[in-house]
Amino acid sequence: MRLPILSAAFSLLRLATGLKIATALNWIEHTPQPYAIKNFYKGSSAATLSSGGVANLASDSSFDLAANAETQGLKQYAGHRNIRLIYVICEVPYRIVANKAAGIKTLSDLKGKRIGTMASTSAGVFVHNMLSSVGLKESDYTTVSGQVCMKAPCASNTFPQMLKNKQIDAFGIWETAVELGAQALGDNAIIFQNESIYREVYSLYSTTDKLNNPSKRKDIVAFVRALNQTLDIFNNKPDSVYQFVASAVNVDVPVLKAVWEDHKWTGTWKPELLDFLVEEDAYLAQTDRRQAIPRAELQKFLDTSIIEEL
């Protein structure tokens, strides 16, 4: 009679001591994590996802891992030098969709226009980088805040509907909102994208404390190994995961398919990522009114040790 009680107690203990991961649950980029937990993870303790991000690693020591774009990683690392970027889940060259009827044919034509984005996020960095690449200063255009829509019909306060209603002339954000904005405009839509200027580097983070804990490290390695197996499926058998991803973030499968190729399921990174982070942090330091992180410190931020154990 006691066996069920003991089994339940063990399950609760496993969850309580398990791998705790903070991640934004609304976006396509996060979806390899639940897929990996469901299909491949074989750690000694349960892995659970909670809504959040890399800020949780800085504020709550119960979290072992977090996933976010590189922008949030840099913002947190500036004040918490124990955070480490250990794996790249996805790289996404964001897109700007603009209304040709507003006289927009080139990026330069966004001068004087109203551009939807989210300040202090990867999307805000993206819009800044794209427009500065053609010589536009932030004073040359107006940024407008709004909400993200992932599935039509879109509410009036979301970027796709704001674009359709001519409240803004363009917007840049993560998918599937840009695709929905383009569909809303139809033939009047024009897209701007340049991976060499900006791409989101959606990454997995941990802390030196967790990485130096032998039992916790084993489970982190097991989770990253499961992510590697998942990315192989996402890259080579996407038809088998479209429905899973669409259900996880509440998007329509045809829209998901339209933006799938913009998501590069990479796993690791190339040496040039350090230069990319140095440049982005210089901009973030200005907007956040802090000192830029020295290059040598950013080199410590990139920790390949977990990948090397796979």
Automatic annotation (TrEMBL):
The UniProt entry, under Pfam families, shows: NMT1 (PF09084)
Q: Which residues form the signal peptide?
A: 1-18
Keyword annotations for this protein, in alphabetical order, are: Signal
Provide the SsuA/THI5-like domain boundaries: 56-239
The answer to keyword Signal applying to this record is yes
InterPro entries in the record: SsuA/THI5
Q: What is this protein called?
A: Periplasmic binding protein-like II
Q: Which organism is it from?
A: Westerdykella ornata
